[in-house]
Amino acid sequence: MIWNLGSINADNFYYLSHLPGPGETIAADSFQQGLGGKGANMSVAAARAAARVVHIGAVGPDGKWAVDRLLEYGVDTQHITIVEQPTGHANINVDAQGENNIVLFSGANHAVDDRMIGAALSEATPNDFLLMQNETTGAGFAVQTAKTLGLRVAYAAAPFSADAVQTVIAHVDLLVLNAVEAAQLEEATGCDLTELPVDDIVITLGGDGCKWVSNKANTVQSFPSFPVEVVDTTGAGDTFTGFLVAGLDRGFDMATALDLAQRAGALMVGRNGTADVIPDLKEVQDHDFS
């Protein structure tokens, strides 16, 4: 089982000819709103990859629709708390090439407290996964509790903060980073990734695939990407991580789980949207990338 301490956002998408520069005002070609937040995206992805996922998080009084949507997508929502703060949201600009920039408002995601986390993880069993990102409060308490209970910890270190990573890294079993974040972490720690106290590190490389650093086996392996036309990169990394952790939770070896995650991420960049358009396991397995 996967226990995902994660954000829940309303994603507001603005589709533009180009991303605005400093001081520039630009009219959007179109707009849509959907369910998002790195946490919610990963919960949906893991559930669609046939894992059992319990989401630990918070929404405001305006967020019942988001909880209902997660439940509809197969996520266990019993440990999502309604708090006084408004639900988090993200304003996402997407240009004609599918690149984006994002402005986040944390809202209820920063109202998650130790009591909520403890109540959820008290139901966990050894070898379950705790999955975390950097969009909620409570990560330090969660990771220490998880290790005490014998859970495996998967950490997608985004939005990236070197301080946040270093606070929890001693308890992390699987660390997922993109190439920029990996370089920033090496600079902040003064260590190569192979010297960090983490058994498995996965670096996503966009169109160049991904790299797996196994510090337990002292090996580094690269995995190529699948050829796709990029429409929107938003949520692709979250989809990758959700499928990866789901595969490992289901007992796949790392190479098999990474292949599944690469396929899911490749399908995702061909779609506009986030949690609402994450592919399911059958789509991922049946798609022919040749």
From TrEMBL:
Q: Which residues form the active site?
A: 238
Which protein, by its recorded name, is this? Ribokinase
Q: What is its main location?
A: cytoplasm
Q: Which of this chain's residues are annotated to bind substrate?
A: 9-11, 37-41, 135, 238
The protein's location, in the record's own words, is: Cytoplasm
Name the source's superkingdom. Answer: Bacteria
- Record GO biological process: D-ribose catabolic process
Q: Which residues bind ATP?
A: 178, 204-209, 237-238
Q: Which cofactor does it need?
A: Mg(2+)
Give the E.C. number(s): 2.7.1.15
> What this chain does, per the record?
Catalyzes the phosphorylation of ribose at O-5 in a reaction requiring ATP and magnesium. The resulting D-ribose-5-phosphate can then be used either for sythesis of nucleotides, histidine, and tryptophan, or as a component of the pentose phosphate pathway.
Record-listed K(+) binding positions: 232, 234, 268, 271, 273
Keywords attached to this entry: ATP-binding, Carbohydrate metabolism, Cytoplasm, Kinase, Magnesium, Metal-binding, Nucleotide-binding, Potassium, Transferase
- What is the regulation of this protein's activity? Activated by a monovalent cation that binds near, but not in, the active site. The most likely occupant of the site in vivo is potassium. Ion binding induces a conformational change that may alter substrate affinity.
The protein's organism comes out as Sulfitobacter geojensis
Any one GO MF annotation of this record? ribokinase activity
Instruction: Give the matching HAMAP family.
Output: Ribokinase
Q: Which InterPro entries match?
A: PfkB_dom, Ribo/fructo_kinase, Ribokinase, Ribokinase-like
The Carbohydrate kinase PfkB domain extends over 6-279
Signal peptide residue numbers: none
Subunit and partners: Homodimer.
The pathway noted for it is: Carbohydrate metabolism; D-ribose degradation; D-ribose 5-phosphate from beta-D-ribopyranose: step 2/2
SUPFAM superfamilies linked: Ribokinase-like
- Gene3D superfamilies in the record, alphabetically? 3.40.1190.20
**One Pfam family this sequence matches:** PfkB
Which family does the UniProt entry place this protein in?
A: Belongs to the carbohydrate kinase PfkB family. Ribokinase subfamily.
